[in-house]
Amino acid sequence: MSVGTPDPNPSGSAPEPNSAWLSDLELADIRRRVPILYVEAVPVRLDGTGQVSRVGVLLRGDAWGKITRTLVSGRVLYGETVRHALFRHLEKDLGPMAFPQLPPSPVPFSVAEYFPIPGFSGYVDERQHAVALAYVVPVTGTCEPRQDALEITWMTPDEASSPEIHDEFEGGRGTLLRTALASVGVLGNP
Amino acid sequence: MSVGTPDPNPSGSAPEPNSAWLSDLELADIRRRVPILYVEAVPVRLDGTGQVSRVGVLLRGDAWGKITRTLVSGRVLYGETVRHALFRHLEKDLGPMAFPQLPPSPVPFSVAEYFPIPGFSGYVDERQHAVALAYVVPVTGTCEPRQDALEITWMTPDEASSPEIHDEFEGGRGTLLRTALASVGVLGNP
Amino acid sequence: MSVGTPDPNPSGSAPEPNSAWLSDLELADIRRRVPILYVEAVPVRLDGTGQVSRVGVLLRGDAWGKITRTLVSGRVLYGETVRHALFRHLEKDLGPMAFPQLPPSPVPFSVAEYFPIPGFSGYVDERQHAVALAYVVPVTGTCEPRQDALEITWMTPDEASSPEIHDEFEGGRGTLLRTALASVGVLGNP
Amino acid sequence: MSVGTPDPNPSGSAPEPNSAWLSDLELADIRRRVPILYVEAVPVRLDGTGQVSRVGVLLRGDAWGKITRTLVSGRVLYGETVRHALFRHLEKDLGPMAFPQLPPSPVPFSVAEYFPIPGFSGYVDERQHAVALAYVVPVTGTCEPRQDALEITWMTPDEASSPEIHDEFEGGRGTLLRTALASVGVLGNP
User: Fold this and answer.
1) Residue of B159, B162, B179 to mutate, interface with D, max D Cβ within 10 Å
2) DSSP conformation class of D169
3) Burial tier of B126 (Cβ tally within 10 Å: 0-12, 13-18, 19+)
4) Of A105, A136, A183, the CB nearest to D185
5) In chain B, whose CA is at the least distance from the CA of C102?
6) Residue C9 to residue C89: CA distance in whole angstroms
């Protein structure tokens, strides 16, 4: 049932730091009352001149066994900087040896607005109204997806721009991925 | 005592659309549990070539009679797009005849992170952890501040870059104003 | 045969202001020695909230009768600001009643590098090495293409994102158009 | 007498690759006829979360012994990508062990327009009309200035934002430095 922005605190796993006091019920209540702030990241590999050569896309299975592609994504906690949230979710989704190079600028390449009902924007998350600051993040180490991500696939920008890959994302994130590619000057042909 | 990000629903005034169900108490509770999403706007006048010629700064008095300078600012409501929130707060603070030209891009010039305790970032809001998407917004009409803003002052970019003006802002917003000027290429000398 | 960046001073038309001293021969010589600075613009219509609702694409015929799509584009002259060059080429290509709203920020949404030989970047201009600063520019008036442009077509962002439209551009500008759409958050499906 | 944008090919040193055919006289002639494309870079050190902790400023002596501060800067050659020009000038000014991390995005944080005569923009270069694409570039290695730069000074963002440092730059580059700091969210008080 759950799509789009992944739950930052899936039942069964340890609670996140600082959020032990926010139970699933309380979070569910807040999600119906204010927009929830998220960060999203598109992990990339750079060549020697800083140009993006590969894009990392996560493969994730949900509770019903459905496989979809997604990006690094998660909630910003109370008292946490955007930068720390970004780092925490990169480590959560890519493992501790990914060595992400967080961008010096806090300005995202795009702001993705997820609404529970389609039609307000290009992005949908049936659980909540979420607003995500999205970043392109170079990684230099080894990525080993953790939690509920099955694997990370490294594609060329052209592959990642294809209609086939677009259709494997949910909630509109295929568009967010291509917007990321455009922001770094490597959007492929349609 | 309240400084920084202005209260979106000041006691005594009519409640905002869509938020009647969120009482002051409930909002106060949520503010201690998740970061609250804000928009901020720096109103500007452009010359014929699109260059910023004047910057609008609000003068506001608080409940204790203290006068401070501030920017257009307010909360994004549940179910509301960032764009609509921006428009609503511009109208709230500048009046219905300001005719703001909202930017085509949803990417802010900066992301200002306000924490209740100083030292986490350059911005402080003792009431809450707020994350503000900040935009430069050209206005072409007549600005008549409403609500608790006393007046709007139009300054040259050089005047707005001065240490004196910087010190009249609270919560670090003087830096946000100069960051806005830098983003449109008109930051004055220090 | 000439494609890509349109000639700023087509033979048969009046020379541009300030450039009378730069003959076709001299310009041809300089074009083999330094990169030439260009501006490019994607004209757009905005809805009441500032969101892009339509994108303007030019239709142009070359000396051999071939019809291709293109963007507003032209050279920055010696002594001319980027802003004035942008305004001049918008007027040249859209007519004097287009009323373009030049962006307050001098930062382009992308930098397109055109090389005479394919493979260095996504963009090709067989006449020269040109570097173009590209902007999204809202227009509020009536557009009447002048010079060698046949007409301007207003498309929805989804139409402008299609493979068919992409293929009607030359020199890689279809990608630049979609990069523009991505920068304002309205890139359509591939 | 020469200030502002440093000569990419100072007499006495070896000519740059690809430009052997462009003599000093020819370059001087072209500089009076078209705007010359430059890149500029503000080298920075990042902390573990990607935030800028130090800014690198060059100290340079001219032929008359006058000492001024400046940024990494130089011309884009014919046939050279902006990215390669940026890398080449970073190596020229910071040495081969600086290990700059070129940004994945080709979009500069600002476009600085230098005119021979003051008043057209905030930037002046008496030798030419130059348009510079300016980038913030993290460096992870050891910087050893070469050529005519005397040394590199690493400052905190607050120090680099001060009026004293501003006044030690020529051609308006103190403003470009503070614009760089603003773009990465660390502009200090005026």
Assistant:
1) B179
2) B
3) middle
4) A105
5) B50
6) 12
What string of H, E and C letters represents the secondary structure of D56-80?
Answer: EEEEEECCCCCEEEECEEEECCCCC
Closest CA to D39 of D108, D137, D106, D133: D133
What pLDDT digit, counting tens, does each position of B3-19 carry?
344 444 444 444 444 44
**Distance (Å, whole) CA A64 – CA D180:** 48
Amino acid at position C153, single letter: T
What is the spatial distance between Cα A10 and Cα A148, in angstroms, rounded to a whole number? Answer: 9
Q: Which residues of C touch A174 (CB under 8 A)?
A: 189
pLDDT tens-digit map of D25-54: 888 889 999 999 999 999 999 999 999 999
Q: Which residues of A42-69 are buried (b: 16+ CB within 10 A; e: fewer)?
A: bbbebeeebbbebbbbbebeeeeeeebb
CA distance B135 to chain C (A): 11
- Residue type present at position B173: R
Rounded CA-CA distance B125/B37 in Å is 13
Band of pLDDT at residue D13, cut at 50, 70 and 90: very low
How far, rounded to the nearest angstrom, does the alpha carbon of residue A115 sit from its chain's CA centroid? 16
Distance CA D111, CA D40 (A): 9
CATH (residue range A37-183): 3.90.79.10
Q: How far is CA A166 from the centre of its chain?
A: 15
What's the average model confidence in pLDDT over D154-173?
Answer: 95
3-state secondary structure chain A: CCCCCCCCCCCCCCCCCCCCCCCHHHHHHHCCCCCEEEEEEEEEEECCCCCEEEEEEEEEECCCCCEEEECEEEECCCCCCHHHHHHHHHHHHHCCCCCECCCCCCCCCEEEEEECCCCCCCEECCCCCEEEEEEEEEECCCCCCCCCEEEEEEECHHHHCCHHHHHCECCCHHHHHHHHHHHCCCCCCC
Q: Provide the Cα torsion B140, A121, C98, D129; round to 10°.
A: 80
Chain A positions in Cβ-Cβ contact with residue D103 (cut-off 8 Å): 50, 103
Interchain pair D184, A106: CB under 8 A: yes
Distance from C-alpha of A35 to C-alpha of D153, rounded to nearest angstrom: 44
Distance CA(B77)–CA(B92), nearest Å, equals 14
For residue C133, give the amino acid letter.
L
- How many angstroms separate the CA atoms of C164 and C154, rounded? 15
Residues of C in contact with B44 (CB under 8 A): 104
pLDDT in tens, A2-25: 334 444 444 444 444 444 467 888
Q: Which of A131, A175, A183, A186 to mutate to test the interface with C (most CBs of C within 10 A)?
A: A175
C-beta atoms of B106 and C46 within 8 A: no
pLDDT-flagged residues of chain A (< 70): 1-21, 147-149
Cα-only R_g, chain B = 16
Q: What are phi and psi of B27, to 5 degrees?
A: -60, -40
Is the pLDDT confidence value at D1 over 80?
no
CA–CA dist B17, B19 (Å, integer): 6
Give, in degrees to the nearest 5, the angle at Cα C159 between C157 and C161. 70
Which single residue is written with the structure tokens 């694997």?
A151
Helix (H, G, I), strand (E, B) or coil at C5: coil
Q: C34 to chain D: which residues are within 8 Å by CB?
A: 22, 30, 34, 36-37, 75, 77-78
Backbone angles phi, psi at D59, to 5 degrees: -110, 130
Distance in angstroms (rounded) separating the CA atoms of residues C180 and A179: 10
Give the residues across from C167 on adjacent strands.
none
In angstroms, the CA D9 to CA D112 distance is: 21
pTM of the model: 0.90
Question: Rounded to the nearest 5 degrees, what angle is found at the Cα of D4, between the Cα atoms of D1 and D10?
Answer: 70
